[in-house]
Amino acid sequence: MKILPVLDILNQKVVRGVAGQRDTYQPIQSRLTESNQPLDIARALRDEFQISEFYVADLDAIVHGKLNLDLYQNLLDHEFTFLLDCGLRYAADSQPLTSLPGISVVAGLETLAGPQELGQLVEQWGSQQTVFSLDLKQGQPLVSDVPHNEYALIKDPLKIAELSLSQGIQQMILLDLAQVGTGKGTGTEELCYILRSRYPELRLITGGGIQNCNDLMAQAKLDADAVLVASALHDGRIDREAVLSLI
């Protein structure tokens, strides 16, 4: 199981995300570095945990529509690769990213205009570089308010997951934003179990609310392929030995 450190970026700084309440996010405080700059944080995590692949949530883009293209390029120049959620609504929105080898685009349910846009992203980027994020809040689908969004008609997360698979998705993030940063677990265990049972070839990425090594082991037992971790890496609840034992 891979560990994917999370870089939540707001105002071009790495912040600590808590329960999806983005107006309260504050710059990260890490035992690994005094800096909150994305490149410094990425370097510190690589030095400590020998990890160079990340999950980047660009909140400047998701919330304000401002892509941090120079920041992405800077990370790539320093030999980092990452899954990038930059608030894509339409497949055409990914055009500025095509010059950035080393990224995979994340299509988040929270912002995506509908399943047809997801299908177009898979066509443009391929199934190995397109990841669908099944965004939830307290177990309920978190859906964009774009007009005529077919996702808004579906209340069952499992049905949304299966619809995304019909669009060619082979990689999926299960993320309940209400759990992020709380240390109370992912809240998606049952959904992960069902999807793994029905679709063994699907690459499943879980996360949000990871408290300690026991939570990591619980995700490993669910046969998750990767898990998103943020705060627990910075404050020492998950240490170097634990990460290296998994990767």
TrEMBL record:
<dbReference type="GO" id="GO:0003949">
    <property type="term" value="F:1-(5-phosphoribosyl)-5-[(5-phosphoribosylamino)methylideneamino]imidazole-4-carboxamide isomerase activity"/>
</dbReference>
<dbReference type="Pfam" id="PF00977">
    <property type="entry name" value="His_biosynth"/>
</dbReference>
<dbReference type="GO" id="GO:0000105">
    <property type="term" value="P:L-histidine biosynthetic process"/>
</dbReference>
<dbReference type="InterPro" id="IPR011060">
    <property type="entry name" value="RibuloseP-bd_barrel"/>
</dbReference>
<comment type="pathway">
    <text>Amino-acid biosynthesis.</text>
</comment>
<dbReference type="InterPro" id="IPR013785">
    <property type="entry name" value="Aldolase_TIM"/>
</dbReference>
<dbReference type="GO" id="GO:0005737">
    <property type="term" value="C:cytoplasm"/>
</dbReference>
<keyword id="KW-0028">Amino-acid biosynthesis</keyword>
<dbReference type="InterPro" id="IPR044524">
    <property type="entry name" value="Isoase_HisA-like"/>
</dbReference>
<protein>
    <submittedName>
        <fullName>1-(5-phosphoribosyl)-5-[(5-phosphoribosylamino)methylideneamino] imidazole-4-carboxamide isomerase</fullName>
    </submittedName>
</protein>
<keyword id="KW-0413">Isomerase</keyword>
<comment type="similarity">
    <text>Belongs to the HisA/HisF family.</text>
</comment>
<dbReference type="GO" id="GO:0000162">
    <property type="term" value="P:L-tryptophan biosynthetic process"/>
</dbReference>
<keyword id="KW-0368">Histidine biosynthesis</keyword>
<dbReference type="InterPro" id="IPR006062">
    <property type="entry name" value="His_biosynth"/>
</dbReference>
